[in-house]
């Protein structure tokens, strides 16, 4: 059935999903350019606007706030309608949220290359844009919770629990971390100083990952994985354990970024302990999602959308194993400030978040436009293998580079002098930085195949029969 034929507000969802797709491609293209600049510095073109320091926050903001937030807003507004069996709380408010968020992204696109930045990780935008973000986020919260309040069923589906947590926690930590004293129209200074600023920043920075890139994506997947698998959630009780485990422990783990720093030792230890505890709820949730897919093993063998979801779950397991591992002091001593951390972040960002988003695009966009099948199952299959080759090359290259340079930085001679210079460490990792660029390029190539496939799917007036090899449901 064409979902546009019912009483739900679908048009704004379409706009969010299209915006997310555009920002996914744009943000990751910028990421590949940055990877190329690290290997070929001449690609900075001696320009103050096109150099790594200006483009890097544009890449992270484009991916996190453009790709991820748009897809989470779009899917959450769709899921909350379907699971609450009612239309959105206010249709006009939904369009205010959409256009307000796109204005935020446009201002980021203009201001970051011009050098207007707070220099805070994942919080680089200056105070006037921050105020706009808060306003739009409040409107989004009113829209989401207002829809839940008018629901026609008593039960609140588990996906909405995760969306609610991501909305509330992101609002709280964003406001606290971005408290600042304006010095001019586009310059401000944090109200915190020194170690306090670092603690608050990584309370925000790690939980931006924990609740945007983890809790929000989990909420999205708890709806779409059962849909794609044509099976119910394997264990509803386990999903609630997953939720409370993340909410209870994730918010405390951010200070593992500050090990071997000047922050108090007990604060560092809280981050370490909470990171280790997170193994349990993270893997419990991954097991739940994996078993949901495995309930339909026959379809899983041939359906590449299901396989994208399954791959995302495996990378979620990897990232949530590696994160606590890097929080242990001995491993952190080697990994801190090395390429290993970048490899860890991107195995999660590309493997978990990226493949979840790709799976949702492939499943959801045809449904939003009333199509029953993809234009080309063959392109979907090519994309699957390009994405996997890209993530694997990217992560492995940075694991090798990071561990190698970490060991070189720590190596000492008999009298305590460093055995390797900084230049020698850079020369060691140079070929691995090229492999990183190559892996990222493969991943982005797959995104272009997806855009071609989905564009032709939406514009094709007639439906075609898809072979079992394509596995499109």
From TrEMBL:
Primary location group: membrane
The signal sequence is none
Q: Which GO terms describe its cellular component?
A: plasma membrane
Q: Where in the cell is it found?
A: Cell membrane
Q: Which cofactor does it need?
A: heme; Cu(2+); heme b
Q: Which GO terms describe its molecular function?
A: cytochrome-c oxidase activity; heme binding; metal ion binding
| Positions bound to Cu cation | 206, 256-257
According to the record, the segments passing through the membrane are: 12-40, 60-80, 92-115, 127-149, 161-181, 201-224, 236-253, 265-284, 304-321, 341-365, 385-411, 431-455
Keywords assigned by UniProt, alphabetized: Cell membrane, Copper, Electron transport, Heme, Iron, Membrane, Metal-binding, Respiratory chain, Translocase, Transmembrane, Transmembrane helix, Transport
By its UniProt entry, which Gene3D superfamilies does this protein fall under?
Cytochrome c oxidase-like, subunit I domain (1.20.210.10)
Ranges of residues in domain Cytochrome oxidase subunit I profile: 15-473
EC number(s) for this protein? 7.1.1.9
> What SUPFAM superfamilies does the record point to?
Cytochrome c oxidase subunit I-like
Superkingdom to which the source organism belongs: Bacteria
The residues that hold heme b 1; low-spin are: 59, 346
One Pfam family hit:
COX1
How is the cofactor bound, as the UniProt entry phrases it?
Answer: Binds 2 heme groups per subunit, denoted as high- and low-spin. Binds 1 copper ion per subunit, denoted as copper B.
PANTHER family xrefs: CYTOCHROME C OXIDASE SUBUNIT 1, CYTOCHROME C OXIDASE SUBUNIT 1 HOMOLOG, BACTEROID
> What's the protein name?
cytochrome-c oxidase
